Protein 1
Amino acid sequence: MKKYRLLAMLSAAMILLAGCGSDDSSSSAEADKPADGTSAVTDASDGSEAEPAKDKPASERNSKFVETADYPKLKELYKDDFKFGCAISTTIQNTPEYSELVCEQFNSYTAENAMKPEATLDQKEALSDPDKYNEHVPLNFSNMKTCLDYAQEHGFAVRGHTLVWHSQTPEWFFCVGFQKKNGTVDRDTMLKRMENYIKDVLEWTNENYPGLIYAWDVVNEAISDSKGMRKESKWYEVVGEDFVQKAFEYARKYAAADVKLFYNDYNAYQSRKRKDIIEMLQPIVDAGNIDGMGLQSHVGLYLNPIEFKTAIKDYYKKLGLEIHITELDLGKDKSEDWETKQEELYKKLFTAFKELKADGVPLTSVTVWGLTDGMSWRKGENALLFNDDLSRKPAFDGIVAAAG
Ligand code: 9MR
């Protein structure tokens, strides 16, 4: 307990000294829609403020938080099944009580925002010499470093999220001279920029944190909500249909052997979207350039766990890929007993995960998308496992019960 607190305070102090950016700076980005059709929230901020480390015991600073040390530990309960992860923001890293709880409960780390292209691409440097940087856009790894130092220090394994995505990738990255007013570059230039981005991130992370990152979401959300590929994407617009194939080709070329390459999408369990995803991934599987399928799983209480389980099995059967549940959260409905229903559904899903394991499906990692309801991107939907005072919700107990 004391150790976690001290480490959290130390890392918060280091971050403050380094003056690194926060991953809450993503308001320009377009968020994906939750599966239940409610509108997306684009800001990562969480209603509770990041408390800079002060030289006082945490208990004196924050009476709003309850003690969490005696909770059952999800990472231990499921240690023989899969890694158990959480999407972690800089707010979580910098607040001793949040940090303590994520360290107690989880062993896999996904940066909620701070390892995305918009947190890494360096426009200022690019603009300083657009000709020099035309095909090889400069990066600033300070945000990534903040994440990876924290993960390493606290013993997490890391899911890298994400390399190629239509959202949270600034438009200037696609433009001539790195300015919107100039319009977009041609396909060949963009492919060079893509290759160099992937190369630089994979090589830098491997050189500086060898063995820490066990998987990367190479491409995120390339399939549309209606049919086929998503057309509202600069990647699609500038490179064309094969941008997904190219991204995986480059990722395989530069990734270390122990880093698994994933495609990641929301509503991936739904039959129409699943069919399109499988069709898109098949040639990439055939080329040997992908290892896994990530189902985000931003869903609601309407979800049928049997349909969900069937979908996971289908990805494995058809593509032979490893499976990760990458961004799980279950939004409430309008009923009065939503908490009990949410507990039941979390329990059924984790029971299904255990059954899948018993059937030989390689489900190797499950991540929940955030820590407390108030910090969730799905504001007002109470989709996560902990209340804002860190008391455990029935949802948490449902997952504990499913462990057997
Ligand atoms: O949780 C993230 C939120 O803080 C950001 O504002 C948002 C912007 O797009 O991205 C959220 O995370 C998304 C993830 O990276 C990809 N799948 C959907 C997630 C929820 O929108």
Protein 2
Amino acid sequence: MTTSAIRVRFAPSPTGFLHLGGARTALFNFLFARHHNGTFILRVEDTDQERSTGDSIQAIFDGLKWLSIDWDEGPFFQSERLELYRKVADRLLSEGKAYRCYCTSEELEERRKESLAKGIPPRYDGRCRDRSNFSEKPHVIRFRTPDLPQVVVHDLIRGDMKFNGNLLDDWVIIRSDGYPTYNFAVVIDDLEMQITHVIRGDDHINNTPRQITLFNALEAPLPHFAHIPMIHGPDRAKLSKRHGATSVMAYHEMGYLPHALVNYIARLGWSHKDQEIFSRQELIDYFDLDHVGSSPAVFNPEKLLWLNAQYIRNEDPSTLTNELLPFLKPVQHPFSPSSDGQGPDLPKIVEGWKTRVRTLVELADAVHPFRDQEFSISAEAHEKHLIPENQPLILLFLQRFLTVSEWTKENLEAVIGTIGLEQDMKLGKLAQPLRAALTGQNVSPGIFDVLLLLGREEVLRRLDKALTLIGPNK
Ligand code: GLU
């Protein structure tokens, strides 16, 4: 496969789990690269030694892998590239575009307070700018920000944005511990990795003018910038924990299918006509930056749940069964539903259930009574259907099921049809106490599927148990 010149990156700082916003940034970069046959790079921005952790790095990899957002180059770790940053800083020093600053943090703090007291926005006053006596005393390296009235960011999503150049001070590029600052390392890496498009959250917009002045100082071409709007909760506040889970892997644990989440986050800020459901290939085919909006996207957990239900419903039973396996509860008392002694047919059970659940967790709960003789009877099912008035009907089912010659759908339909005529009851009504006794729930796949999946022996056992639970009919 030939690749175009397009090169993009996802550059997470590993200071926590992969959250929905980060996953969306990764996805947009990934889709953009795949759409244009370009290259997608993963770069871990771990220069904040105090806040970066190995667990977070792992959590980010796990999240990306679960969503199948795979990268072509990397992962690169900024902490392993310190020499490169140092080299560029030295070059800037030798060209007079950067300088050593020996101001201590106490001095800076004092001056900051003075500015605030005078009502002036605090910024570095350039005290060490023209210093000529160097020493080995602890120091930082600052970028000599050129005097510019204005810096313009040409943003592919928001159009041109003008920033007041006078507000940019001489910012630190290398800290006293030798580590680069975020804005410095980003530019050096974007340059060295030949990134053509910087696609990131618009919380970084205020960093972009600084980064542009540095690109210019290095006489390097600018990448294109595309700042994607924030994700808000339904109340229009920035998405946070109180809107529900924000970690990608929490959705894994709650029983979401990875592609349902990918489909959902793709639509957070991007659209293609009014289509809601996209295969992976469709996302790649249709994704481009021109349909990324500039207003905040609203996260709607109900819609995500709805979408997940659509994916579960449309998944083929054997694939869904594989997804379900890690969610299944351990079976305490297995039973054999068929005379040949084979265990319950999980894909068949899944097929009966998949249109009635929204998550794999719900599916695991739903299939449990079909795998285990021990299952709980819900309070609703008990109170509504397993009541003394229904005792004669359940007893009648038990007696007739005992005499069915072969346990087939046709025979069972005939038996239940006869009971319906005798009792003058419709199937829907007849099935309710039966369903409650056999599954412990008020909702289940069609009653004939339930009877067939459980097998005669288990059906009789459960009806008998329900009669015991109800007690003698007084
Ligand atoms: N490391 C930054 C972050 O995690 C992203 C930097 C960038 O994309 O330029 O927010």
